Amino acid sequence: MPHALPPRLVSLADYERAASEVLDPGALSYIAGGATDEVTLQDNVAAWRRLALRPRILVGVGRRDPSVELLGVRRPHPLLIAPMAFQGLVHGDGEIATARAAAASSTIMCLSTLATTSPEALAEAVPDAPRWFQLYVFADRGVSRDLVARAVEHGYEALVVTVDLPVFGLRERELRSGVGSAHAERVPIAAAAGASGAMTAAGFAELVDPDLRWSDIEQFAAESSLPVLVKGILTAEDARRAVAHGVSGVIVSNHGGRQLDTVLSGADALPAIADAVGDQLDVLVDGGIRRGTDVVKALALGARAVLIGRPVLWGLAVDGAPGAQRVIETLLTELDNALALAGSPQASSLDATFVTPAPWPDQRR
Ligand code: FNR
Fold this sequence. Notes:
The chain is an alpha/beta fold.
């Protein structure tokens, strides 16, 4: 019997299916799961589908330009790779493979505080990967300051301070699978923070500071030579506070539905935030972006750029760096197609007139 050819992976959903076949159940539960009933997790994807596009015709789309300006720098396209912890659970090459995919596709990679690769090792292995550093602020501020200094020294271009994790969300899939206790001992930063033994969620929770406040953010922004973005903003009130406390950008995010369940999706939270502060700092969004049309909708609603989370891990699981690269390239191809067909050849020219609430029923998976 000849071997069947592997099925071609065309869409991000194809990668999701393929990844679920290769990942062990514990790792899969860690990646795929959300908090408690996973209402927000599901809605993150559904919310983009509740928006319909309003295309323009006969505008001449032969020359298309997906570039955007982000933190004052022109970037070739609006995709970033979201910070995601423990990538060594997904593929042996972990974050280094993700960085290779980032370098090959000119995509900014956000390295998590809880990476299984140190900021230095990543920078040395893939020096041409555009990179930002994601910071969980530890109760021991000295450790956090040291981390920031290491990021500055090793070419990270911005700091993403994640503010929606004062404590861990209740992730029941992980509890059922028991993956919580299986998190690698290979979390270099945890060692620097004085954690003993394996880095479990519980161990991590002891390090992170649940009393972080806006004044701390202001101090980071004032002390840091890098632009500071806060990740995990869901209301216009907080976005205004972010402006008042001197940050350069906000990332509208619910942490991929992994923290507080039943909060708004990124798609639904974005418009009010972009309206409130979009002319004062850069607004980015993440959560549930799975299609080029989702990216178009995000930009139309006022985001400068979008972060892609789980799909990158699906690519990583399926085929390491080339798999993650193909996931990003698939989205870029879809984005190019959507810009042409929506009649907005320049990504940066999209505005709210390109979207409207969809008249069709909710499209949950
Ligand atoms: C995350 N996310 C996350 N965020 C962060 O600021 N620091 C982190 O270490 C992690 N770790 C992490 C691990 C895994 C497995 C996932 C899936 C997510 C949240 C992430 O940055 C992003 O906000 C969401 O994943 C975006 O949603 P999608 O694209 O996964 O739907």
